[in-house]
Write a structure and sequence with these properties.
The protein is an alpha+beta fold. Helices cover about 40% and strands about 10% of the residues. It is built from 6 helices and 4 strands, in the order ααβααβαβαβ. A 4-stranded mixed beta sheet has the order 1-4-2-3. The protein starts with a helix and ends in a 7-residue tail after the last strand. The C terminus is likely disordered.
Length: about 200
Amino acid sequence: MNQSRKLMITAVAAICLIGASCAKRRAAIQPPPPPAPVPVASVSKPAPAPAPAPRLAAIAPLAATPAPHYPNAATRARIDELLARIEDAYFDYDKATIRPDAQKALASDSTELRDILKDYPDYRLTIEGHCDERGSAEYNLGLGDQRAAAAKDYLVAVGIPAAQLATISYGKERPACTEHNEDCWQKNRRVHILAMATSPQP
C-alpha cells in the first residue's frame, strides 16, 4: 500500500512539475508587439518642368523657279517673225505630197523655231490645210487635212515635237485668192502655219 502511494505521489509531483514548466514556457513566449506605425512622409509635388524653348520655324528650302511654260512677249514676237518668214507650202491639184519647193518653204527658219519651242513645251503651233474651190466641201476638208498632216510630218522630221503641232483643215472655206483660174487656185492649195491663238498670254 505504501508502495502504491509513493507511486501516486511521484506521479502527481511529476505532473505538477510539467504543468509549472509549461506555465513558465507560456509566460516566456510572448507574441511580438505590433509594429510601430511608419510615419507617412509628406509627398511634395514635383517641381514644374521648365517651359520648352520656343522652336524656330523651319526654313523651307527655296524651290527652284520652274521654267516658264509659255514664252514671254519678246520670244512670242520672235516666233511670229519666224512664222512670217516661213512661206506657205503649196501643193499640186488633188495632191497632198510635199513638193521640193514646199520642203524648202517649210525648212526656212524651222531650225531656230525648233530650238525656241523645245524650251516651251506647252506652246503650240497650228498647221492649216487649204484647198481650191473645185470639188465638194466634204472632199476638200479631207484633202486639206491630209496636206496639214504631211506638213506636220515634215516639221517633226526637222525636230519640232509632234505634241506642239496641231493640224486643222479649212478645205475651200478660206481661200487666199477668189479668182477662178489656175494661178489663183494654186495659191489656195497650201498649208499655213501660225501660233495657236488659244495659248495663254502672261
